[in-house]
Design brief:
By secondary structure, the chain is α/β, with parallel strands linked by helices. It has one domain (about 1-285): TIM Barrel, CATH 3.20.20. It is about 45% helix and about 15% strand. The protein contains ten helices and ten strands. It has helices at about 25-40, 55-65, 95-105, 135-145, 160-165, 180-190, 200-205, 215-235, 255-265, 270-285; strands at about 1-5, 45-50, 70, 75-80, 90, 110-115, 150-155, 170-175, 195, 240. Strands 5-4-6-7-8-9-10 form a seven-stranded parallel β-sheet, with helices on both faces. The protein has a three-stranded parallel β-sheet with strand order 1-2-3. Strand 6 (about 110-115), helix 4 and strand 7 (about 150-155) form a beta-alpha-beta unit. It is globular, with a radius of gyration of 17 Å.
């Protein structure tokens, strides 16, 4: 069973537009196109990472008549003034976060997503956007989600961000660029699941010379090689690793991105059987 634990159905295929900008007579056919793409690639389950328009709720409804299992947080939460405006709702403070989470829960998300840090710089290796939520804010938002019976995926990069997510009770860590061995040991001890998303930087590093992303190839290659090394170490240590492609991101197309990520993880020494086992755990969270 091929499972992708991190995609963005509202990006890439939809060009990042809001669902209100797509004519009603085009929305359902385009959603069905996505389902067909995943069917042809042999993917049986996907876990969405949300977008500002909340289009995932539409695809979830349509997927009920297909063989694809589709889970979505609908929209993510990010700290106001920080990275994440195209992925969900900004949060001013803890009180605002809880209020907005309760409002989102009325739409019945399958889980909650928190964007804790920024992304890695494409021009300066090792530089990341800052941590948005404090440790106490992150912990209390995760606790609130758990009290409501919902698991939490946390977008986190750099050792600082990853450790905050780990110690705040996150169920899965998404991306984890810049991870170090202390984080890996903590992951192993906690039993948390890491979704490393190798494909975004790997695919940019392998883009052709006419791609507008070609200027980022060298930095992307450095990220990919570093991340690949840490995934190998994590697997050898017994860290739970799940396949997540970040499809919808630049040069990671919906459907094909899953197969790209699978290839990168297999090159790191993981097996399809292990990825299926952990993937099922993530989908069932």
């Amino acid at each position: 069973m091929l499972i992708d634990c991190h995609i963005h159905c509202g990006l890439g295929q939809f060009g990042g537009v809001r669902k209100t900008d797509i004519a009603d007579d085009l929305l359902v056919p385009r959603m069905k196109e996505i389902l067909e793409v995943y069917h042809k690639k042999g993917v049986q389950a996907v876990r969405d990472g949300g977008d500002a328009s909340g289009i995932g709720i539409n695809l979830r409804d349509i997927s009920k008549d297909s063989d694809l299992i589709f889970k979505t947080p609908i929209r993510a939460f990010f700290k106001k003034g920080h990275y994440g405006d195209f992925l969900g709702d900004s949060v001013d403070n803890l009180k605002d976060g809880i209020k907005k989470m309760n409002r989102l829960i009325e739409q019945k998300p399958d889980f909650i997503k928190i964007i804790l840090t920024g992304i890695m710089s494409f021009t300066e290796f090792g530089i990341s956007g800052p941590v948005g939520f404090s440790k106490s804010e992150c912990s209390e938002m995760i606790d609130h989600a758990h009290q409501k019976g919902l698991s939490v995926m946390v977008h986190a990069n750099t050792p600082e961000g990853i450790m905050i997510a780990l110690t705040s009770g996150a169920d899965t860590i998404e991306h984890g660029y810049g991870i170090n061995e202390d984080c890996l040991y903590a992951m192993r001890e906690s039993g948390i699941i890491w979704v490393p998303t190798l494909a975004p930087f790997a695919n940019i590093a392998r883009c052709d010379d006419v791609s507008p992303m070609r200027k980022y190839k060298d930095v992307s290659e450095a990220y990919f090689r570093q991340h690949q090394s840490m995934v190998r170490k994590a697997d050898a240590m017994g860290v739970n690793i799940a396949l997540g492609s970040d499809s919808g991101a630049t040069l990671v197309p919906l459907g094909q991105g899953t197969l790209d990520e699978l290839g990168y993880l297999l090159d790191c020494g993981l097996t399809e059987e292990k990825l299926e086992t952990i993937g099922k755990r993530v989908i069932d969270l």
